[in-house]
Amino acid sequence: MFYYLFDYLNSRFNLPGAGVFQYINFRAPMAIITSLLISLFIGKRVINYLRKKQVGEDIRDLGLDGQVQKKGTPTMGGLIILASIIIPTLLFAKLHNIYVILMIVATIWLGAIGFIDDYIKVFKKNKKGLAGKFKILGQIVLGLIVGCTIYFSDAVVIKEKGVKPQKYVSTTNIFKVDNYNEAPQFFSKKEIKSTKTTIPFLKNNEFDYADLLSWLGDGYKKYAFLIFIPIVIFIIVAVSNGANLTDGLDGLAAGTSAIIGATLGVLAYVSGNSTFANYLNIIFIPNAGELVIYVGAFVGACIGFLWYNSFPAQVFMGDTGSLALGGIIAVFAIIIRKELLIPILCGIFVVQSFSVVLQVLYFKYTKHKYGEGRRVFRMAPLHHHYQKSGYHEAKIVMRFLIVGIILAVMTVVTLKLR
Predict the structure, then answer these.
(1) Torsion region of 72: left, alpha or beta (phi above 0 gives left; psi -120 to 50 gives alpha)
(2) Are 55 and 182 found together in one domain?
(3) CA dihedral 123, 129, 135, 136 (to 10 degrees)
(4) Any idea which of 85-99, 125-139, 150-164 has the lowest mean pLDDT?
(5) What is the residue range of 101's domain?
(6) Helix, strand or coil for residue 196?
(7) Would you say the C-alpha torsion 27, 292, 107, 285 has a positive or negative sign?
(8) Is the same domain home to 98 and 147?
(9) Would residue 14 count as lying in a domain?
(10) In the Cβ-directed half-sphere of 28, how many Cα atoms lie within 13 Å?
């Protein structure tokens, strides 16, 4: 909203300083600051309201250290995160941008699914909450919306690289290029629809999902949606549930998400800037730079929430926050064509999910084979295994966050490590 207001004031009245709202590198920090202030300002009020309504977490005694003391801690704190993301985005982003619209839809959609789940648990006193099949269904529907929008919308395009069409000769002594094939690359002015994405660690690092259907023969690319949309759905469901499983210790999910969000912000900025995209040899996505405003609000919301969620937590985010955080990360990565970096960047989520799947499968296998179920970990997800091993909750969270920072650095390094 501020973008449009100050753009009007600048063009109509030439108001001094109004033009600064045209710049992403001004609006993004403003979104971060605003998000932090909102989360800090409303956080205490939301917590007091939840306490007044006795919206407390009902903890199952699993024999974990410090677990019983958490009983009654207000939950549904994800509302703080959602408000702190959406309000700054509405204030500072270009709201006609298709990518910003998609992110707002994903935030509200998954936040609503999580809210329904928390509402059933807290107010209806049903510990099971929303049935798992309905959660998955909601995530699948969002995947369909995102996948169809990216695939069919004319506003979602990329620019491909080419070379200057004329012979290029440098007159400097630093380098001399007099061969067409060695001429500097540039991005074509033509915007195209594509299902290409970025593959890490490879020099020619672009992969087109449509090529998976090349066996269909000529015209196979028009059927690319048959493979692209299911992949989008799978990524959203997997990452959303991975974040949900990670939300088990004070500050773990919010802290991990903040690190991932900051990294995605860097990737979005370079992907939406033709100069950086050209230098890094990655896909140039026009208008994707506007997502930096959104992810700035996202990071600010996560950090602001940590003020109340760090050990010992005054509030839990509940599924209202955790389902939304994972889904937001997945949709964002898909939009900027960096979803194949998720196994690295979201390594904490991946390992948490894998630990649960492995635990369940091994237990069922050993029960069938030996008549008694056995376990790989003392408890799953993985963070509970370390709790059972005697590590303090705060130490586990801090070490997971350190690993998350290492993974974030590795993700950024892949831009040049090929």
Answers:
(1) left
(2) no
(3) 180
(4) 150-164
(5) 26-157+196-413
(6) strand
(7) positive
(8) yes
(9) no
(10) 17
Q: Percentage helix, strand, coil, to 5, in the chain?
A: 65, 5, 30
220/173 same-domain check: no
Do 260 and 337 reside in the same domain of the chain? yes
Q: How many domains does the chain contain in total?
A: 2
On whether residue 294 sits in a domain, the answer given is yes
Length of the chain: 418
**Is 8 a domain residue?**
no
Under 8 Å between Cβ of 273 and 243: no
On whether both 68 and 56 belong to a single domain, the answer is yes
Handedness of CA 372, 378, 379, 382 (dihedral sign): negative
Distance CA 19, CA 9 (A): 9
C-alpha 291/C-alpha 271 separation (Å) is 10
pLDDT tens profile 149-204: 999 999 999 987 755 544 444 444 443 433 334 445 566 667 899 999 999 888 77
Q: Is residue 20 part of a domain?
A: no
Same domain, yes or no: 328 and 351? yes
Contact between 91 and 1 under an 8 Å Cβ cutoff? The reply is yes
**Is-contact 250 306, C-beta < 8 A?**
no
Q: Answer yes or no: do 226 and 362 share one domain.
A: yes
Strand, coil or helix: what is 311? coil
Q: How far is CA 408 from the centre of its chain?
A: 13
Q: Report which of 29, 49, 38, 151 is spatially closest to residue 102, judged by C-alpha positions.
A: 151
Whether residues 181 and 258 share a domain: the answer is no
Tell me the two tokens of residue 218: 């000529």
User: Nearest Cα to 156, choosing from 187, 198, 195?
Assistant: 195
H helix intervals, 23-153: 24-52, 78-92, 98-122, 132-152
Task: Quote the crossing angle between the two packed helices 291-309 and 98-122, to the nearest 10°.
Answer: 30
Mean pLDDT of 288-307: 96
Contact of 91 with 312, CB cutoff 8 Å: no
SS3 at position 411: helix
Which one-letter amino acid corresponds to residue 59? I
- Domain termination site, one of 192, 214, 236: 192
pTM: 0.91
Residue pLDDT, tens place only, 344-379: 999 999 999 999 999 999 999 999 989 899 999 999
